[in-house]
User: Fold this.
Amino acid sequence: MPILEVNNIKKKFENTEILKGISFSMEEGQTISIIGSSGSGKTTLLRCLNLLERADEGIITVRGEKIFDAADELDSPEILREKRLHFGMVFQQFNLFPQYTALGNVTLAPGLLNDGRSMAEIEKMGKELLDQMGLSDRMNNYPHQLSGGQQQRVAIARALAMKPDILCFDEPTSALDPELTGEVLRVIRELANKHMTMIIVTHEMAFARDVADEVIFMDEGIILEKGPAKEVITNPKQERTKRFLQRMNS
Ligand SMILES: Nc1ncnc2c1ncn2[C@@H]1O[C@H](COP(=O)(O)OP(=O)(O)OP(=O)(O)O)[C@@H](O)[C@H]1O
Ligand SMILES: [Mg+2]
Assistant:
């Protein structure tokens, strides 16, 4: 059974159709990269999957459970919050809570979940996750005391702490100086090696080629091309994909 099935997602903003029927599925442990020009709808798609945006049409199924159907009534805020937990989201602008330490950022939301984990267990997990992100000596630092790359790694730990089925990244390195990009890509690569299920919107073509199992090329609200990462990046079939990749390489 696929971990995620996306069926015919459509989304309009002010009468402009931004997503024109997006369908794909992915298996547990897979990494999919989404590439495409600015404005093609990549962020909107991630927001619809995370239920931060309500699609106008379509169905989203996680582990066989229908978590969204545009034909259904609106969910209550409580149900919506619960359904959102299937997804983790890492944004371009890390969005850490400035008044909490690195460890506080990671443990805050799990602490509010009441999922049977004690605060001591949650702290232990938080420390392990920060350690895994290479931040064992930074746990008690506040966001303003951390570099962009470190903040983004805290944001990744924070998303993982909620144990999402699928972790989504929206251009996780775009706000970073080039020398800090590598350390963030490295931890994402490690997660891929550990078979975390991930959807990564990225402009880093070499990274998409090397780390993702599959690449989706989005163009004007549709999936124009999808296939094994190496094939799509190094030998695309569609003219528009070729042109996009040429632009990215120049
Ligand atoms: N809340 C909104 N209201 C109106 N239009 C929106 C809204 N969100 C996105 N759009 C429009 O939808 C289109 C797709 O935007 P989206 O952010 O999904 O593109 P993207 O592929 O992520 O682009 P980029 O690579 O620049 O991040 C754009 O034309 C954008 O202006
Ligand atoms: Mg975007």
User: Anything to note?
Assistant: The pocket of adenosine-5'-triphosphate (ligand 1) is lined by residues 13-14, 18, 36, 38-44 (CB under 6 Å). The mean pLDDT is 96.
